[in-house]
Amino acid sequence: MASVASKGSGLINRLLVQARPQLDVFMKYAKVELTPPTPADIPAIRQSIGNIMKGAKTGAYKNLSVREAWLNTLVTAEVLFWFYIGECIGKRQLVGYKV
């Protein structure tokens, strides 16, 4: 029984040593990407929303390459899927609300 415990602890130690660099990279990006916007970011957000609106009005989406259009479609689908998952979690069932 002691050999199983020592093998298990050795396996866990090796796993932690191998996972450390990947966790460090994850934490580096998580600190930057997962922070909420600061008040200093608001003007840039407004400008990018304005650019999106202007591009929609002028038809700039017609000049996108197929790759850019496909990437925009995937990002939109991801946002919609996360919204739907949040709705399912919020109502605690897949279909409809309990009345």
- Share of residues in strands: under 5%
Shape: elongated
Sheet with the most strands, sense and barrel status: none
Distance between the termini: 55 Å
Helix content: over 70%
Instruction: Give the SSE order as H and E letters.
Output: HHH
Per DSSP, the total helix count is 3
Oligomeric state of this protein: single chain
Question: What is the C-alpha radius of gyration, as a whole number of Å?
Answer: 23 Å
Query: How many domain units?
Result: 2
Structural class: mainly alpha
**Overall mean pLDDT score?**
88
Which residue ranges are poorly predicted, with pLDDT under 50 across at least 5 consecutive positions? none
Q: How many DSSP-defined strands?
A: 0
Provide a concise account of the structure shown.
This protein is an all-alpha fold. Helix content is 76%, strand content 0%.
Give structural notes.
With 99 residues, the chain is an all-alpha fold. It has 2 domains: 1-36; 65-98. It is 76% helix and 0% strand. The protein contains 3 helices and no strands. The chain is elongated and about 70 Å long. It starts with a helix and ends in an 8-residue tail after the last helix.
